[in-house]
Specification:
The protein is an alpha/beta fold. The chain has 2 domains: 114 residues, Cobalt-precorrin-4 Transmethylase, domain 1 (3-Layer(aba) Sandwich); 126 residues, Methyltransferase, Cobalt-precorrin-4 Transmethylase, Domain 2. It is globular and about 55 Å long.
Length: 259
């Protein structure tokens, strides 16, 4: 099963898409043996119960477009400081550390500081939430590619540098952190040539008991989101793979999630 967390080492651990039992075996082992746990806001409290009772558990989450959130430089400083004190550190992140989780940035900071670290992969939301909703991330009959895209920035903002023409040509795309911008993203994809009838869906709180799935089309998904008042966390998927939900979701064993 492998060794426990080593002193003076930082582990960037993926907690998985939501459900506590979707963390990996390696991730759970590190969580259970680390001296310090620095965790994201959305990590399920039940998972934190798996930490060593003697561990120092610190929330360093980011919520609400960084309003009232922990600044990234403070997280970086804490990682280096605890490791230099000889503590083993579990940096517990939602999903996978390196899929829009700033795992790469934190790894750079640790490397520059000369701090040993390891990246422990996790099940990212595009895989986990869609699977729980009965939507396969890929399907041989629905194209040969899928894009994982950040939807954090307003498409009308200069901070958004996405190539909408390229995304519209792909058979599938999954947008993270896009709840506020679903309608604008759909409009940009349609303006770039993606058919308005293209299947689309939003999966809210994927893999959790409060999971909800809003399946629609590119043309109508924005209105569906406005009516539902979705606040997240959620992923937004566009592509023909969404249509397979009609065949599959009635037979998906929920494991606690609402399919």
């Amino acid at each position: 099963m492998g060794r426990a967390a080593s002193p003076g080492t930082v582990y960037l651990v993926g907690a998985g898409p939501g459900a506590t039992d979707l963390i990996t075996v390696r991730g759970l082992r590190i969580l259970a043996s680390a001296d310090v746990v620095l965790h994201d806001a959305l990590v399920d409290p039940g998972l934190l119960l798996e930490a060593d009772p003697r561990a120092e558990v610190v929330s360093v989450g980011k919520r609400g477009y960084c309003v009232g959130s922990t600044r990234q430089e403070h997280i970086n400083e804490a990682l280096v400081r605890y490791a230099r004190l000889g503590r083993s550190v579990c940096r517990l992140k939602c999903g996978d550390p390196c899929v829009f989780g700033r795992g790469g940035e934190e790894a750079e900071v640790l490397a520059a500081a000369g701090v040993p670290f390891a990246i422990v992969p996790g099940v990212t939301s595009a895989v986990g939430a869609l699977a729980a909703a009965g939507i396969p991330l890929t399907h041989r009959d629905a194209g040969q590619a899928v894009a994982l895209v950040t939807g954090h920035h307003d498409p009308d903002s200069p901070d958004c540098t996405l190539d909408w023409d390229a995304l519209a040509r792909l058979p599938g795309a999954v947008f993270y952190m896009a709840v506020r911008h679903v309608a604008k993203i759909a409009a940009r994809l349609a303006a770039a040539g993606l058919a308005p009838s293209t299947p689309a869906a939003v999966v809210e709180a994927g893999t959790l008991p409060r999971q909800k799935v809003y399946a629609s089309t590119l043309a109508e998904i924005g209105d569906a989101m406005a009516a539902a008042a979705v606040t997240g966390p959620a992923v937004f998927v566009v592509g023909e793979v969404v249509k397979y939900r009609e065949k599959l979701h009635g037979f998906v064993a929920s494991e606690g999630a609402r399919v």
